[in-house]
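Note to self: the last two entries modelled the partners one at a time, which told us nothing about the interface. This time every component goes in together.
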Amino acid sequence: MLQHLFGFKGGVKPQTNKAPSVQQPIGQAPLPARLYVPLHQSIGGSPNPLVEAGEQILKGQLIGGADGWMSAAVHAPTSGTVLAIEKHVAAHPSGLPTLTVVIAPDGRDEWITRTPLDYRSLAPERVREALRDAGVVGLGGAVFPSHAKLTAASSVAVEQLVINGAECEPFMTCDDLLMRERAEEIVRGSAIFRELLAARRVLIGIEDNKPEAVAAMQAAVQRLGEDHEVVAVPTRYPAGGAKQLIRVLTGKEVPASKRSTDLGVQCFNVATAYTAYRALAYGEPVISRIVTLTGNVLQPRNWEVRLGTPLRDLVALGQPKADTNKYLMGGPMMGFEIPDLAAPVIKATNCVIAGSPTLFPPSPPEMPCIRCGACAEVCPHELQPFELYWFARARNFGKTQEYHLFDCIECGCCSYVCPSHIPLVQYFRFAKSEIWSREREKQAAEAAKARFELRNARAEREQAEKAERLARAAAARSSERKPASAAASPPVAVAESGVASAVASEPAIASPPIDADALKKATIVAAMERARAQRAAVQPRNTEQLTFQQQREIAAIEARRANLQAESSPDEVNRPQRAAE
Amino acid sequence: MMLFSTPPYVLGQGSVRRVMLQVLIGLLPGIAAYIWLLGASIVLQLLMATVAALAGEALMLWLRGKPQGLFLSDGSAVVTAWLIALAFPPLAPWWLIVGGTLFAIVVAKHLYGGLGQNPFNPAMTAFAVCIVSFPALMSQWPALGLKLNLAEQLRLIAGLIPRVDVMSGATPLDALKTALKLGEGAVDVPTLLATQEVFGNFAGRGWEWVSVGYLVGGLWLWQKKIIGWQAPLGFLGSLFMLAAALWVWSPQQFANPLFHLFSGGTMLGAFFIVTDPVSGSTTSRGKLIFGFAAGVLAYLIRVFGGYPDGIAFAVLLMNLCVPLIDMYTQPPIFGMKNER
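The predicted structure of the combined assembly is written out below.
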């Protein structure tokens, strides 16, 4: 099919190193002795554990319920016994522990009753819920809950649905093999997404270094009589970034400030479409995924691995060579070094690469920036990385934002080409996290200030009220006593004794003007807080291409921010009311 | 606490040393033409400048407590040294080259913070300082009729032979300007270019081929993506247009644009000076503006000013404007091209 391609600026062409891991078909990884299933495997709320230690569970049983709309459920990858629900090291660069369900498999691998959903007759809302409860999230590595991306913008119809099979990261071949072997299911899943979004066209983008996958997908589309367009896109990292692929296939550029649906386009990974179809058509929740195991191993291959399988068990399947000194999760451009092989495979684990000093030589020493602009030339978001670097280094964070720091997708192209070997992306991450933490502090300070002002206003109003009452009482007294004695006793004493009666007789005194002002201010602050909270709840961020750990950091920050607001906003909303009572 | 490496785990082939090495290679065609024209004495000048630059660099690195091996081998000091040697008069006394190079490295580079930090082009700073301090020596170029052998040249550089005016002439640019001034309207440019021995086929006799050498090396650097097209095109374009406009207006008083393109430091400046990433503009439009304005200034200074050539001052003046140019020429980013 003829399709005009648009291309994107920048990008690099690192060695792809994909050939070794596509020689064999996808293998079924054996059942490990223990499974460690983290509850929090996606962006958004951390699922609540629904099982207890000692409980017998079946394969596919819900073990973590989605926490709110922006969350996704977690299921048991096999049948067996829950040994514990405890903190276990996470597949995260920090290696920090996270709440994990530890399962001892019974070896029977016995499914729950799987109930296929007749998704065609269900309301779209029900289908989205079903996807959430089946734990369907973006399997390209971003693990963003898919159901939350399946709503069109209110004012813009979805023109194109982009299915991302580009897989631009070197070494990684899990999507390639999935497309080769399970193309039909991907196409069917795409059709479901298309229906939910009412998308006019479906464009499946695959980098042209995967001719087998392109052919398999084309054949599947034809067999199923769909009109999806399978498009081979030029191989250039990061063509598989959602925004880059959207640009290449549709010419649309989604800035950080907008949702792709605002521009009438949405993007999903092929593996996500696959799992969505399995979930709806077979009632199988997401309990495994395809993981590329490659690099410095004797047996590079793609494996279908149960979530929760310790990385150590997975890595052993590949027989790492003796000089292996590190393991990466994800690709070499955006992935991270696994701090502990006890960490389990999670939904974000698309690739595990064994590294050696020859495969990934240590970075040469960092030199000063010579402003050569090589980074700006390769930046797919057309930023000026060296300017961002100067500002980040100088902790001039306002300027970094002015130069669009948050449009950076951290693809690593700038670091890749830098002749001075400056780890630019690290500087940008540093700047981003500094800005986030400052934002938090600022919000806390603002909330505290609002509370303080409100308290002051109330104190002032109470004082004014008191003074007025005193004055009124004094006036009443003096007018009563006028005929009796013009030279009355000192007014203070009179006033004090008159307080109670004054309050009782005139309960509805109009508030003094100063109070009205403060009240108005407080109400505005509260309304703004509410609006912000609402916006935060609705708006997706520029987080779709971020790695899992970044997404999680963001999610954690959001959660803390929400807590902060929850703490402060009731005060702000209620206090004026209480004061008015 | 274990420290883990950070992505990306694969890196490209680029390095500062590689960039600088390629710039040096880009200078070779020009140097070859230079040797053909004047003999091997330029090699001595290049060597002296290189040694002075590395010595100055080593001293400053030591004083600043920076790693010697890493920075001495980055090649940036050698590039500065070569540019100085090529921009200075070929038979200038040794102390002029050495002093100029030390000034470039110590003051113009390291006192501002070293590699990547200097706001002014070090080679051009040295040139400007020397031409202001030693105008006579900096304007003495070997007269072409004068055939000195290498030994004589070396003795001249070493200061063992007294400098007599007979030995030296002026650059073609200077010669033209002086002749016009002396003639006071009685002479015209076409006649001068056709009759005087200092002028060759299209610019200065002999020197025009050195310029061609720089052009070749510069185009190679552009093809290797070490330099962009914007700054050279802006520079050559504005110089050409200004020269052409005045030439069309009064061919009797102004030399043709081709003469200007291949005279003085035009080609060296276009491909090796205004393209300096550290002291130049960084955005695409900024590079064009930087080159364009430098070309205009260079022409005005070399034709109407008091110095034989104007490139050094033009570049230094534009170096001053770089932060402003960069600020106002930030390109629109991905997804924001239709927003203002």
